[in-house]
Amino acid sequence: MPPKTVRKCVERALDNLSATKLDRFRNELVKRKQEPRIALNRVEGKRSWEVVGEMISTFKEDGALEVTKELLEELEFTEDAETMLKEAMEAGYRPPPPEEHFVDRHMDVLIQRGTGIDAILDALLKEKVLSPEIYDDIRSQRTSQAKMRELYSGPLRAAEEVKDIFYRILKAQQPLLVQSLEKK
What we know:
The protein is mainly α. The chain has helices at 6-15, 19-31, 40-43, 48-74, 78-90, 102-105, 107-113, 117-126, 132-139, 144-153, 160-173, 175-182. The longest helix has 27 residues, at 48-74.
C-alpha cells in the first residue's frame, strides 16, 4: 500500500536506501549550494526519518520531496526517485509549474519601455542570435515598442538559450531596469 502523505513518501524512499546510499545522500544534502541549506551536524549519523524531519523543517514538505528527488537523481538512484515521485503523486502531490523565464515574465514592461533596443539588436546580431535579414526587419520597425514586439514574436520564441542571451545583454546594458524588475 502506497504512503498517504508526501512526508511518508520521502521517508519510505530514504528507508529503502542501503546504509551506503543513505550516507551518500546525506553527504550530497549538506553539499547543496542552493539556499536554504542544511548543516552537516543536523544530519550526520541520523536515521532516515530524522533526516526527513530536518528536511521538512528546512524546506517544508513539498520542498523536501523536490530536494530528495533532485539528490536521488544526481546520485543516479533514478529508480528510487521515480518510485518516490509516483507514490507522492498518488498521495496528492503535484509538482510545481516550471518557473517562467525573466524575459517572458516581464515582457509587457520590456516592450513598453523599449529603451536601448537598437543597442540590444546590435549585440544580438554580433552574438549571431539574429541573422542580418531579421536584424534589418526588426530595425525597420518605426517605434522601439514595435521593434521589441517583433523581437518577441520571432527570435525570442526560438529557444531558451536566445532568451538567456537577451537577458545577459539586457542586464549588461540596462542594469538598473533589470534590478528593478528582479525585485518585483
